Every structure is written in structure tokens, then in C-alpha cells.
Amino acid sequence: MSSDPKQELERKLKAYVGVETGPPTPAPEPVNESMIRHWCEAMGDENPAYIDAAAAAGTVHGGIVAPPTMLQGWTLMGIEMADPAKMRKNKQTELHELLSSYGYTSVVATNCDQTYVRYLRPGDRLTATTVIESISEEKATALGIGYFINTRDVYRDQDGAEVGSMLFRVLKFKPAQQPQAAPSATSGGAPAKPTRLKPPRGHDNAWWWDALATGALPIQRCKACGVLRHPPRPMCGACQSVAWDHVFAKGGGTVYSYTVLHHPKFPGYDYPLVCAVIELDEGTRIVSNVVGCAPADVTIGMRVALSVAPVDGGMTLPFFRPAGS
Amino acid sequence: MALTWETIREGDVLPELKKRPGVTQLVKYAAGSGDFNPLHHDFQFPQAKQLGSIIVHGRFKYAALGELVSNWLGHAGRIRKISCQYRAMDFPDREFVCRGTVTRKWEERGERLVALAIWTESDDGKKTTPGEAIVALRA
Which pTM value belongs to this model? Predict the structure, then answer.
């Protein structure tokens, strides 16, 4: 089990949660009118409160202030960010390198949430502290599978008073699509077909995937009260027993509910995709796909039959077809 | 006409703000903001090659939303909070529009507060960066 790279990675990730990324980062220079002007020029923001002392005197601020959204800019690393060799190391860069080494090489920001206690004035000297607040479980997204990392920055002034804070979330992920810049070396060959997202496999459900790979659909059963359950989990919801075994589905079922997915189109799936809750004749329900008929022909209450099939060479999944087809 | 607490109504629509950052503006922004992540200026950066382009800084879109709110507010008050989700990427030389509406107006502990729904919309009509702002008006 310790040789499973994902478990190994997730054990390592835990060590970063709640950790300050390093000592407080002082801004290299005080808040100043030149940087404010550069920023406003870059944004195309001509608001006089930021650049014209006379006009700024008449605002609620009583003088020049920095645009509030500039907050993080005072302590960002700047040109160093473009050269990993020069970039100062801290726990956050270390965490990103760790994920990259496991194949989660890409990163995108997904959320930014800033709170301003007060607007900054020329002369303010900021210091930032960053804490890695949380790291999600592995998630499947349209970009690829990855981990969401939440950090929280607190910005303080020369008196140690908090002037603002920021929650920032990034997704560090394995790109779902083959890089466009790396087509098959022998030109003319079809690009590799993207594969489906791999479902999470862990201590509580690995047995289910292994049993499914034999070509039958296992259903977990409580040893104490006999109630069936799916998806696999350690405890019976009916009697709280943790003793369980499993039976195999005979293959009959009914469409309990369904939806037809058109967007967003995840690579590796054919659309429109019928995603259905199937009530198995044994008495529990499973989310699966209805295949072998047009999406418009699927109805609630329709009888379906199980078909276990390999996909993407290496994964086995249960599907359901119209009964008798 | 200056914005005042009395004239603000829930449902008010903010004057829209259009942005069309090209590569030059993004380079200027990298210098102005300190955000030199190569994904925003270097077409040879692996992730940029994979996407087929550099992308607009999330922080640029965030700041544009701040500008939208500040322009409306006219410094008759202060921004307390801006949050946004980066739902989709924006690319250089493509126009996006910042929009907003007043969703709530209330008083709390002697403060006059207004909540706004804000978002950026790309040229194909997608809301790429939805968010929320809270501002405090001058008492």
C-alpha cells in the first residue's frame, strides 16, 4: 500500500496544511506614487484619486491612495517569478514543486477574495504573511485532475496593524489534454485519444474496482442487517455495523432518474452523455451511463440490463443498455 | 451626479467597463503588479504552449472589477471586499466587459453598506470571472 504513489503524495501534502510559507515578507519599497502610476497605466485606470494629489484631496480619502486591488502587488516577487532558478524558495514553492514531481505540472488561479481594512497611502510599509490553509482531495475538473490549494495572506503596516487580507485558491493539475505543441513525433498520425478521468481509488473502494474488473458488478452488503449499499463505504447507514461482504448484481435494473450532459465536454467522453441513477433489482442504486440507444429514447422507469466493459484499456466500468437490446 | 446612499437602489446597473489588454499591456501589468508568472507573457512557457497562447492575469481581471466598482463609487465610499472566481481564461487582444448590479443595501453597526454582483464577460458572452463586492458609503 505504501508503494501507491498517490497515497504517498497525499501523506506528504498533509505536512503542508496549516503551515506558514516562510518568514513574513516585507515589501521591497514603501507604497509610493511611482508604482501606483505604473499600475494605473497598466490597467488603463485614470481615476484621479490615485495619481492627482489635488483631486485626491477632495475624495473620501483626503489624499492619494493606492487602488485597493493593488494590495498583493506590494509584496509579490516580481521578475524572479519568471525564472524558477532564481525564485526564492519557501513552503509554497516547495509544495508546488512536490506536486509537479508527481505529474501535476500545471497551475491556474481559481479564486481571489480580498478584504480591505483601509486603503493604503504613500509611505505605508507592508509586510505579508502567507499560510497554506488547506489542500483538497484529488478532484476531477474540466482542465484535468488536480488539487485545490487555499492560501491566506495577511498584510500588516509599519505599526503591525492589519490593513487587508486575501484568500487565494489555485488548482495544481495534470493537464487533461495532450499538449498541442507536442503532436505525435511521426507527423500525420492521429493525436492520442484523451482518456476518461480516473475515478478515485482508496482503502474503502479498491476492492470494488478489483471485483468489477472480473466482469461482474459487486454490491456491498451489511453482514449484520443485510442492507445493500453503494458506493462502497466502511459503515452501514442502517445499523452502523462495520462488518460487510458483497454480492454480485444479477444485471437487471430500472432507470430511476437521468440527465443528458452536453456541456462542459470533458475530454475522453462521447457527448451527449446519458448519466443515470439505476435502481438495481437487488435494491440499491448506482450512478452509471445508459448506452446503446439515443438519449431521447431514455425514460424514467425504463428497464435496463447491465454490461460491464473495459474502457481506455486499463479501467473497467459498468454500463446499462435498454433491456432486450 | 455624485453617488449617494439615498439614490442607490437594489437592481441598479453599474456603468460597464471594457478592457482589451494586448500583449504590451500585459507586459506592463506584469511590471506594474509584480506578477511575472511566465504564463502571462512568455509564449514559449510550457503551459502557454499547451494552451496555444498566453493568458490574461487573473489579477488583471480582478483589478478591472475593482476599477468598475471604484468608478461607480466615485470615491464617495470605500471598497471593503471583492471576491471572484476564475471560471475561464481570457486571452490577449480579446475584449472583455466588466459589469455589475446592486444586489443589497443595508445598515449595520452604523455603517451604510452595499453589496454588488460583479463579473467579467468575454466576447463570446461567457461570464469568465463572476464575483461579489461590498462597499461602505460615506456616512
Answer: 0.67
